[in-house]
Amino acid sequence: MLSENMQKALNQQLLMEAQSSQAYLAMASWAEIQPGLKGVTAFFFRHSDEERMHMLKFIHYINERGGFAVVPPLAQPTLTFVSLKQAFEMLYKHELEVSAGINDLVDMALREKDYATYNFLQWYVNEQIEEEKLARDCNDKLEMIGDDRGGLYLFDRDILSLDQDN
Ligand code: OFO
């Protein structure tokens, strides 16, 4: 059985995953109307779906442990971006915030001796290592590419395989 505090904290993280899904969905929609960003568009849509899956895992876990997963209202995410680089910088920042949220939960699980939740969270700990690395790689590449259109073309072409390598 989850403690009241843990239930609240897990619901808070569920909200964060839902916000991530919305944020990346908005990036996908923006990318879809930019010329030549087919790969990036697919990447953002796929990422948005993954975040929804992360949210669903929290929903099932909270309910299975005798709590109640609250489906939260969502604020409108940022809709437009001055550049692809800006979108990816936001994505990276977002992932760091998600990681911080997961780390706080792990900390709380240990303090409460809630080892079931501690165990459940390990999946997210590992996932965030990959997510942060992927976001950092994308940012590094975009930094290197700058305004080079050829570089951007290759970035868009290769981004889906970059995602799979992780
Ligand atoms: Fe679920 O936050 Fe990204 O991964």
Automatic annotation (TrEMBL):
Entry superkingdom: Bacteria
Principal EC category: oxidoreductase
Sequence positions that bind Fe cation: 17, 51, 54, 95, 128
CDD domains from the UniProt entry: Nonheme_Ferritin (cd01055)
Keywords on record: Cytoplasm, Iron, Iron storage, Metal-binding, Oxidoreductase
InterPro entries: Ferritin, Ferritin-like, Ferritin-like_diiron, Ferritin-like_SF, Ferritin_DPS_dom, Ferritin_prok
Residues of the Ferritin-like diiron domain: 1-146
Cellular location(s): Cytoplasm
Main location: cytoplasm
Gene3D superfamilies: 1.20.1260.10
EC number: 1.16.3.2
Reaction catalysis annotation: 4 Fe(2+) + O2 + 6 H2O = 4 iron(III) oxide-hydroxide + 12 H(+)
Classification via Pfam families: Ferritin
Any one GO MF annotation of this record: ferrous iron binding
GO biological process, one term: iron ion transport
GO cellular component assignments: cytoplasm
Function of the molecule: Iron-storage protein. May alleviate iron toxicity in the presence of oxygen.
Family named by the database record: Belongs to the ferritin family. Prokaryotic subfamily.
Protein name: Ferritin
